[in-house]
Amino acid sequence: MKLYTQTYIPEIHRSLTPMAEIEGFPVRPGLFDVHGAMMLPVGVNFTVHTHYGTSCTLLLFHRNAVTPYARLPFPEAYKIGDVYSMIVFGLDIEEFEYAYQVDGPYEPENGLIFNRNAVLLDPYARSVAGQRQWGSQTHGSYHARVIRDSFDWGDMPQSSRTMSDLIIYELHVRGFTYHPSSGVTHRGTFAGLMEKIPYLKELGINAVEMMPIFEFDETMNAREVNGEKLLDYWGYNTVSFFAPNTGYIAGDEYNQEGTELKVLIKALHDNGIEVILDVVFNHTAEGNEKGPTFCFKGFDNKVYYMLTPNGNYYNFSGCGNTLNCNHPAVRQMILECLRYWTVNYRIDGFRFDLASILGRHEDGSPLNNPPLLELLAMDPVLRNVKLIAEAWDAGGLYQVGKFPASKRWAEWNGRYRDSLRAFLKGDFWHSWEAAWSISGSGDLYGGFYSDNTNNYAGYNSCVNFLTCHDGFTLYDLYSYNEKHNERNGWNNTDGSDDNRSWNCGVEGDTDNPEILSLRFRMIRNACAVLMCSRGTPMFLAGDEFGNSQSGNNNAYCQDNEISWLDWSLLEKNRELFEFFKFMIHYRHTHPVIRKMLPEAVCGMDPMHTHNVNAEEIYIPQDAKTLAVSFAGYNPETRTDDLVYIAVNSHWEDVRITVPELDCPLGWYLSVNTWGDEQNRYFYPEGEEVRIDHEFIMHPRSVAVFTGRSL
User: Fold this and answer.
1) Active site residue 390
2) How far are the Cα atoms of 173, 335, 359, 499 from residue 467, in angstroms, in the given order?
3) pLDDT grade for 449, boundaries at 50, 70 and 90
4) Which CATH number goes with the domain that contains 614?
5) Can you give the residue range of the structural domain that contains 653?
């Protein structure tokens, strides 16, 4: 079988001939149903649309030039509906960049702000010029390039792994390897990340979630605080939804932008690791009334953004504007964007930032059945792609457990984060919520009904996490009572005040061995609970070796040692890394944690919460210690899969019991975050410690027991 990776071009497009000449360039009407710019054998096809605009002009620039060398107005005959399309013959894609100018009415009170002199980026641009050097914007305006896609994916199949089988590792492409201690050749790039694939395999995760990699402008809102340059480091200010961020590319890729990223994705897939992208469809980098006009505002401000009755911008994103996601034209763009990344980059899933905005009407009100969410959920190309919602927004809409998902979307489980953070540090009144969360949050996601598969629909809706890019790292969660964002320049007013953290007795750095011992035990507790909770676990890169951001819980602007992973901590805290490795491996080898299995032969119920006495399934409201059991029959091993996790958040010893098992089964201690006399915190299979009916849990510790044959 012969495979073709080049775009199929019908024979008629190979024999097209010019019909007119504009400014010395031979042209003809183009391919109206192909958005963006596409290379053809005879030239380049340019297609854009504007609803309220009255005319459109194509601008051609020499590479890196500020002034265009050609302006080609679209004739009226080159327009169908709202769409302008033109083929320009004889263009060499390596010799030019392009942009547009659109004229139309200027009526700000009605949301119309056309400026025929504004240089506009193609909303469907596959590559953005002028962003190649991190920390600088060389053009002064955004230009696009036409790309040549010759990457061969071979016969690589799409992943069939379910959400419940994922262990997600959230990372920032630049920060992951930019610190000199990373030891990679291409620091801060896609290529640098690829050099760390052996590390990711050793750790055992099977999905990476990359913070935004769509083209963004890190220099936007750049400022200086106390002599330190602050950038928009995280990248939640999208410039182009179809283009990869060229600041993350190690080498020049003129007109082949995205190749290095594709090489990385293929390598990750070849090593069994899926790729999830953090996508930002709730706002753009154009900001509010004071922000720049470089793309969507200039094409159709009234279409792309939610506007108040007087023409100002609704700000449900907290970033100045709100994308009008349920307008048909914007809906189509988002769908085409996700299809493009799925087909051309083989992305396995998307995490939608502030996803509740995607369910708002044009006037900002929440919709009962948002057309965009339904469209993405039912699209045939996206059928097997993971869709993950951050089910809230900055406008006060909080939909955790009730995101309008058509049983297709998963959610970041904000309650899991809040309740487990609170309970693990000793806020006992969160015991019920903590137990529900470890059990899979069935009260939120309906985990107790079947969708005719073995996965039980509810559990595939739940992404559990204690840390992510937004907030404290896991080490800082147990090193700081308060946020320390002074270096952000906002007098420590930015970032969340609700951290549910605990400094273990000293704020920040300390060399007190007792406090350090407690901090690392708290980290082990968090890791053990996360990996033994039903739902999909996610954790922040660097948590596995104690990376710190010095108490900064909003490091969005810190392109420095605050945000860069310090890889020297990997050896310093190797013991912690080994614990993470074990817990990840333990989760992989015990499917009963991840999903419902056939009924256990031993007769244990599939799942229960427990008091200190395992026979008591009722947990008091103020319980200081609780347990959760998972039981089922594993057809692959032909044995019962039995796991019992106990959490003691009290500062005193607690005597617990474990469920009675009929012979020849017994309980074995697999994990004890307190440690034994040899400072062992886990026991590999075959080395577990046999226990009787009772077990003494030491203060602030977690124990995991495995049921198996005696």
Assistant:
1) yes
2) 17, 30, 26, 10
3) very low
4) 2.60.40.1180
5) 596-709
